[in-house]
Fold:
Amino acid sequence: MSATAPVPVPETSAEPLVRVRGVKKHFPITRGIIIQRKVGQVHAVDGIDLDIYPGQTVGLVGETGCGKSTTARLIARLLDVTEGTIEYEGKDITRLSRRRMRPLRREIAMIFQDPYASLNPRKTVGSIVGEAFQIHGLPGGERMRSPWVGRVARLVAPVIALGALVIAVVAGFSASIEVPLPLPFGLLGLAIVVEILRRLLVLPARRRWSRKVRTEVQRLMELVGLNPEHYNRFPHEFSGGQRQRIGVARALAMRPRLVICDEPVSALDVSIQAQILNLLEDLQEEFKLTYLFIAHDLSVVKHMSDSVMVMYLGRIVEIAPGETLYVNPKHPYTGALLSAVTIPDPELAAKKRRIILEGDVPSPIDPPSGCRFHPRCPRAQFPVCKEDDPRLTPHHKGQLAACHFPLEDRAVIESTA
Amino acid sequence: MAEPLLEVRDLTVHFPTDDGLVKAVDGVSFSVARGETLGVVGESGSGKSVTFLTVLGLIDRKSATVSGEVIFQGRNLLELSEEEMQDVRGSQISMIFQDPMTSLHPYYRVGEQIVEAIRTHQNLPKRDAWQQAVEMLRRVGIPRPEERARQYPHEFSGGMRQRAMIAMALSLNPDLLIADEPTTALDVTVQAQILDLIGRLKDEFDASVVIITHDLGVVAEHADHVQVMYAGKIAEYGTRNDVYYRAHHPYTWGLLQSITRLDQPRQERLRPIRGMPPSLIFVPPGCPFHPRCPYVMEVCKTEVPPLLSEDGTHSSACHLTLAEKERIFEEEVAVKS
Structure:
């Protein structure tokens, strides 16, 4: 399955930024409390190949539980793959250690779905957006450094205080050693003085640092259309759309090259969705960002993406440019997704040929044999579809579909608007 | 036109809070005819849910000041006692909510919850009520209903739970079904299934349906009339074709333009409505939409536009002249194909 599939290459044929080959992620299911037995596994992602080219937007659509978020997390290395390889700029990052991965974390950022759950309610916007700077330093490479008071200085006061404590304890227990009373107290006083001095000396550097962070954060806030004066506000003081802007600002803090947007607008009102989508497009243009754009709404994905991948039960079933996908879907599942999308035009909506799927997505614990879509597929023929796993095969320009009996052209929508 | 099933006249619902008076619903009048599907569209905080919670008597009257009339089958529901309201709820008007996980009780079997609803209103032996519950689950398209009725909500998928909620809501054969964002939490394929189901059951049970949503796409196929709400007021009301093909209110235009449309070639830019919905405590004076409206005039800032009808049904609350509205819609909003 993991053989290199012919993934469509765009005209501006550069090296892909991300190359994913035969990636699988299986989550074990265990029983028992102390002795855990493995009783099965969830095939969340089951052998996918994909390329993301610099400056492009790749869309990923599919229903809940099809593995699209897992794919995103695997690429961001928030999860470890079970099998397969992930390359970033030609470098295999599949098994990099946390420490080796850290510089790459600046390059890959993520925007999450729920702007209510993904922002820490106890932190101000300033510290949420600025958190990356505390870890990675400012985008210019500058870090919080005190000029000469290093880590050693930070240890001096605690060591003296500990010494005072030891002397006091020893004196208390043994009658033979005479310790003048002022000694432990004097040491303690010295520790306090040293610590206060250290803090005073560090203060200017820290001030300068936080001023720089603040400027940078406010620049980011302005960039995403938030009022920079709201730097000290908490997430609950913002509306859903504004919160998502905070999420975008946080993702952009380290000037990443790849931004993984995991359902960035699904939780928002339609009119606010449009604002965020426009913002993402503007930022892409300005910073030459590459997006992996995940959503369950085909119309949003089509609007944003250069090419769209449709996932079903851990597999990619179709890849095509948005236009092609809309006019000539080949995989029956894509057809079903397409026919389910609501169109705010009653006549057009009534003209659509409906492919209504029966039932729910089967469990990824025990996915169906052969083509995974066969139990729900209106075109399935037996025994081929049940036994033979279809491979991605080329159709129109840039289009690949994994189906034995692909749809005819214009099977869902008659006219191309 | 026959006597409407539900008629709401000048309904206002205000919540006094420490920060000020929240004008959640502010003078809303509309009616729902028998057998009709009404789509209510608006952003979060436009008052669409509160309007229908008030119709159902689910607003705590101690914490809200409610005025106006809600006439349902000749009775003003706002004057009924809590006990009388309980008879109306469920058996005559019932409601399904956005999140089917939080609206089903996790401790009780799905069948038991439907039985409870049935036995609250009908004097039936348990066995018969159970039979009826199973039958309802069958009618909403749940496979193996006998088995499913004995399962708990966590064993159901999101779409199945919503089906179970619909089964419960329809088990007493209500005259009016209110669906508050019934598909927002669901996948698109499941959304299509649920919308079709509601449409089919509406005819089967001869009920009227109100679908509340923030997405104009959702009601395009199923609603007879569409009512667009903004900041506690009705901005536009009309037949489905009026609203989609001849919309008259700038807010409706904004909604139509901000949707990513699959049937359009990839547009360069979406045209979102600028700004945010207003706080319901400090509703802008004049037309509540004026700070976000691209066609704002001086009069909009001071005078509240009344909801005026142009041809009997299609009405909009906007100061622009009819000719202006038609011109702007044709030139800027209408989809050219």
Summary: Chain B touches chain A through 48 residues (CB under 8 Å). The first strand of chain B starts at residue 6 and ends at 17. The longest helix of chain B spans residues 188-205.
